[in-house]
Queue: 2 jobs
Job 1
Amino acid sequence: MKIGIDAGGTLIKVALVTDEGRTFKKYPAAEINQVIDMLNNEYAGEDVYLTGGKAEYIQEKLNFNATLSIEFDATFRGLSQLLKEADIDLDRYVYLNVGTGTSFHQATRESQKRVGGSGVGGGTLIGLSYLLTGIGDFDTIIERAKDGDRDIIDLKVHHIYNGRPSPIPGDLTASNFGHIINAQKNASIEDQLIAVIGLVAETVTAMAINLADAFKTKNMVFIGSTLLDNTVMTDIIYRYSELKNAEAYVVPDGEYSGALGAIS
Ligand code: ATP
Ligand code: MG
């Protein structure tokens, strides 16, 4: 068995690969010491591959040897494999790893280059939701946001143009959280949660669109646990990309790219 581990800021992703197939597991980063105990007790002597921000910490505490790899290289290897398995065949593309924070990359079939990052990511989604509503559980945030209405809190282009013709689509957000007078009166918890998700989704998509444009491609690939079962966010990403004539892909199991690619 080969075990690939991507220990990120929020979640530790684990890929267990045997000749028969593979399984994926994730653990909260707060449980890192339990994960280390499990590795030392149950998996000592197996081939263990580590990547991610907390990889070195794990390596120091293991009582056997493990192979370390650079996070960006591991993620690209894993992503290339998952794209192939999903029959997504891209010559040139940008990809965004929307983890706790977000990192941006330009890629061809052969290689990737990290071209930047943003502090707006999944950590923002949870942190801002919690500060506004007291809800900090990821699944609850997503579930309740489904009943929210973005027009209550966000100012859309059509709000500014007041029904008159606008030079850009009226459905585009003019200002996230900008529908101020209305929001102060009418915003429910659900409206606040979907507004937070909208802010994160549109920020990363806007950056992806610019990055893709500069790299002369329309293809934008999104990975990271922030997208996990998060149809509220992926719907916003798809719709915004379509309005801008770009092609967004959300790769199945994309959040395990690093764990999978660490196994080399
Ligand atoms: P980074 O790569 O930035 O160090 P990471 O690898 O831990 O961080 P991911 O696992 O890709 O990041 O994504 C973390 C985000 O996924 C969280 O910020 C949260 O928005 C979302 N998320 C999805 N499921 C969960 C969960 N069960 N618990 C906590 N966060 C979750
Ligand atoms: Mg990560």
Job 2
Amino acid sequence: MKKRFEEKVILLTGGGSGLGHAAAMQLAKEGATLSLVDLNEESLEKVANEIKKEVPDVKILTLTADVSDEEAVKSFVQETKQQFGKIDGFFNNAGIEGKQNETQNYGIDEFRKVVDINLNGVFFGMKYVLEVMKEQGSGSIVNTASVGGIRGVGNQSGYAASKHGVVGLTKNSGIEYGQYGISINAIAPGAILTAMVEGSLKQMGGDDWEATGEEFVKANPMKRFGKPEEVGHLVAFLLSDESNFINAAVIPIDGGQSNKY
Ligand code: NAD
């Protein structure tokens, strides 16, 4: 049986850790050719080597870049197209959480930084990838929003603004590009245990962060954190041909928690 991503080229940002790492592994197992982008060269190479060990015949291009730098985004999109001839799917995922604080104390520099990466970065990615996909007349984009992009969580001005912005961009562009055979959706993960969430728990609980985590998940209907692999499966589905008629949608993956906030 043909694998879902055989002969498909997938570009993915934030590939060096967490959700990007898990999605890249899933896509590679299903036959994808990958172009992986991350700011952190070392972790990117580590992930690429891990994938090559698991899927020896995988084709992977690794590109170190900052998604908040428009020229860098333009060039990693061009390089992917040049190397592989097309871009079938784009997981527009790199992001940071930022320092937690009440709005009045949420520094403007921190706000700008979080919005630059999480929102401007997603916009730049869509802008340049959509040029390629429109010319092809096909493609799928998955933007990473968050439960913090559909609900108020608190202490996260920059994160909330950026992730609500990602939801807005997704709906707007999904409406524009559906007619060209391109689907654009967002995922809204709840707390998935990755380096980013570990960082948040440390901000909340310091050395006691594991106990803080246990307390935190008691509020979840499923009483646990999500696993990066679970998000990887959702991303693969949304980038596959099986989900072609899902467009401009925002899909929570949070154990049901966003219905409780
Ligand atoms: P992570 O910290 O494990 O991975 C994020 C990756 O993005 C890292 O490898 C990092 O180096 C890279 N990155 C950061 N800034 C970058 C930049 N400017 N340019 C290029 N790469 C950059 O975090 P994660 O949990 O995998 O988060 C991935 C995405 O999922 C983020 O957008 C995050 O906001 C979102 N998200 C995560 C959760 C969660 O619970 N983990 C929940 C909701 C949304």
